[in-house]
Amino acid sequence: MSFLNKEICDGDNPDLTEERRTATFDTDRMAQVIYGSEKFAARRRQITKSISRIPALQDTKPLAFMTREEKITEACRELDVLSDHWEQLIYVNDEEEALHLHREVIGMEGHPFALHETMFIPTLVSQASDEQQEKWLGRARKREIIGCYAQTELGHGSNLRKLETTATYSPSTQEFILHTPTITALKWWPGALGKSSNYAIVMADLVIKNKSYGPHPFIVQLRDEKTHQPLPGITVGDIGPKMAFNGADNGFLGFDHFRIPRGNLLMRHNRVEPDGSYLKPPHAKIGYSSMVKVRSRMAMDQGLFMAQALVIAVRYSAVRRQGFLEDKSQEVKVLDYQTQQHRLFPSIARVYAFIFCGLETIQLYEKLILDVNKNGDTSGMADLHSLTSGLKSVVTHFTGQGIEQARMACGGHGYSMASYISEIYGVAVAGCTYEGENMVMLLQCARALVKAVELVEEGHPEKLSPMMAYLTKPSVTVDLTVGPEAYVKIFQLIAKKQAFKATEQLHKFMVAGDSRDVAWNKSAVELTKASRLHTRLYILKTFIRRVESITDISVKAALTDLLNLHLNYELLDVASYALADGIMSSTQMDFIKNQLYSSLEKIRPNAVSLMDSFQFSDLQLRSVLGRRDGHVYQNLFEWAKSSPLNQSEVLPSVTQYLKPMMEKSKL
Ligand SMILES: CCCCCCCCCC/C=C\CCCCCCCC(=O)SCCNC(=O)CCNC(=O)[C@H](O)C(C)(C)COP(=O)(O)OP(=O)(O)OC[C@H]1O[C@@H](n2cnc3c(N)ncnc32)[C@H](O)[C@@H]1OP(=O)(O)O
Ligand SMILES: Cc1cc2nc3c(=O)[nH]c(=O)nc-3n(C[C@H](O)[C@H](O)[C@H](O)COP(=O)(O)OP(=O)(O)OC[C@H]3O[C@@H](n4cnc5c(N)ncnc54)[C@H](O)[C@@H]3O)c2cc1C
């Protein structure tokens, strides 16, 4: 079956048009699967269309040619235009629509509202009492104030229990006194803190009567609402340029005995009474919920980052012709090379897999917040914490790898800022660090795994959560030809073996006399391996579940090819564990390799449409190389001509230095 996809093909590069004609599914239908519903996929298209009708939002000067100050100014200009059209463009307070709007118009390099939407408002929703929400949430949603999330300090990010900023309660004035006692206590890194925000959620150690209660969230006004000047007692500024994400003003912040009213401690779950008595929350880590919120989004957001890089690389690979295969009269599209397919298609599969996980974890977080806020039920917190800790680490790692391969797949042009892939890479890999450094978070996931293994060893398998149930599965011989379930069984065995081995190692060191912390550190590499396998198993199972639920036959068939590629690629990638433990034979390995190669061939005709289905506009992609029309050479030449260096034939640097130098050399 062949579809001419709905987008207009006329005028596009004929090689791309040919790819779109031969696709076996409809990209609008695929978009419904990617974005979770027909309604949201349609809304995205509608929003994109509405944006294209606002002249002030069309791309002006390419971001690559802008200074940092120009990028920040441009993002603010766009936000101002958006603000004027907000209610016509999206349903107010619809988070997904707001994110789409920002991604499309402002892109990924950061902007003053990035943390306002993703952490400031969510913290007010999850941590502020009804009364506090009344006071601040409405103002935040109407954008009367701009907020950020200030937690990390110069000296501490991973180890929250050692944050040094203090919030000391003064019963006589019913105030908290915020203070930065040392240079390492300066808040350092928070996005949009430096220059844009006038409010912040500040995580500080709550101190009452000389007793420390650990990090708690406070809402703090940083700047005068009229003049935007920092308030007395506050030192705030920008931390300087970064590897990417330079449209954002990540900042520093210090307090000099800065007083805030008692009512600025967010008090939905804990309270400090006027006399200083403390009511503790129903769960010790409830104050960490905003981090869980962002982590629960990361599989989706990282999947979309990698998708952008792959749209660019796949379209380009269908247009770029170099070398010959059978027909010596015409060079082939580089996408026809097996190595190119092997470089790109497993990442396409991962993009889909990650996004399906993201759809699930975003919903899990929403449910958790309802359970906690409405019913005080915190029982889901531990599972979501361990799941999202593992997932953010695995997904960001593979996303970085996938984007870098996409860059290389574009040859020399991939290295140019015209491809925009380096910026996507720089922004995406920040995710390996923010919201918890990946190793640290893998070790959080390992805590849950070790606990589960210990339950099995102690004879209490009935206490395992559903995600851990595979730890009780007995070893079996598996026939891989029966389909996805066989792959799951092998993966389960591999993950189970590693979880038991790592736990055994931990116990061995403890029995030999090490404390649990020291034994943990001596086993940490093995523990992180167990966490990765556990998480990859979850990703694999989610992918299978999602594909099974699809009703559109042609979409399902295309995704089944992608799923088969994923299953074989993943199993091959962890084969060393399976071979070492005798879980798989070398004959099975050969079978997997052959299946993998044949999946590449099956996916080839659909590659461009699998990526077109993300329906990123050229405005959002910001890539000269990856534009929908595929006229890469003309577009590249125009872009290069617009470089500031090409606005004059002879640069001042030549007149001032090179010419005199050459003249001197002649003497
Ligand atoms: C990103 C979304 C935006 C999308 C927009 C897209 C548009 C694109 C343009 C923008 C692009 C990017 C946007 C950038 C956004 C950047 C945001 C970045 C923001 C930040 O980075 S904020 C700072 C984040 N910081 C961290 O994550 C710190 C990491 N550290 C920790 O979380 C903790 O210290 C810890 C490692 C979890 C340890 O905590 P602690 O020492 O207190 O606890 P223990 O290890 O002793 O464990 C005790 C016990 O508690 C359990 N536990 C820990 N945390 C939780 C939890 N959250 N929930 C439930 N349970 C928890 C732990 O498991 C232990 O249990 P056990 O005893 O084993 O039973
Ligand atoms: C782009 C970007 C945006 C950010 N935005 C914000 C924001 O809005 N608000 C905010 O508060 N913060 C923000 N941050 C800060 C970020 O959350 C922290 O940098 C992150 O949590 C990592 O902490 P760290 O810098 O202390 O790393 P470190 O912990 O110092 O990591 C250094 C090394 O030590 C290792 N390590 C540390 N502890 C352990 C351990 N227990 N076991 C094993 N290894 C360990 C790590 O694995 C790593 O290899 C942002 C950071 C970036 C890059």
TrEMBL record:
It is found in: Peroxisome. Pathway: Lipid metabolism; peroxisomal fatty acid beta-oxidation. SUPFAM superfamilies: Acyl-CoA dehydrogenase C-terminal domain-like, Acyl-CoA dehydrogenase NM domain-like. The active site is at 435 (proton acceptor). InterPro entries: ACOX_C_alpha1, Acyl-CoA_ox_N, Acyl-CoA_Oxase/DH_mid-dom_sf, Acyl-CoA_oxidase, Acyl-CoA_oxidase_C, AcylCo_DH-like_C, AcylCoA_DH/ox_N_sf, AcylCoA_DH/oxidase_NM_dom_sf. One of its GO terms (molecular function) is ATP binding. Residues 484-663 form the Acyl-CoA oxidase C-terminal domain. GO terms for biological process: ascaroside biosynthetic process; fatty acid beta-oxidation using acyl-CoA oxidase; lipid homeostasis. Belongs to the acyl-CoA oxidase family. Residues 288-450 form the Acyl-CoA oxidase C-alpha1 domain. FAD binds at residues 152, 191. Gene3D superfamilies: Acyl-CoA dehydrogenase/oxidase, N-terminal domain (1.10.540.10), Butyryl-CoA Dehydrogenase, subunit A, domain 2 (2.40.110.10), Butyryl-CoA Dehydrogenase, subunit A, domain 3 (1.20.140.10). This is Acyl-coenzyme A oxidase. Residues 26-146 form the Acyl-coenzyme A oxidase N-terminal domain. Keywords: ATP-binding, FAD, Fatty acid metabolism, Flavoprotein, Lipid metabolism, Nucleotide-binding, Oxidoreductase, Peroxisome. Its cofactor is FAD. PANTHER family: ELECTRON TRANSPORT OXIDOREDUCTASE (PTHR10909), PEROXISOMAL ACYL-COENZYME A OXIDASE 1 (PTHR10909:SF250). One of its GO terms (cellular component) is peroxisome.
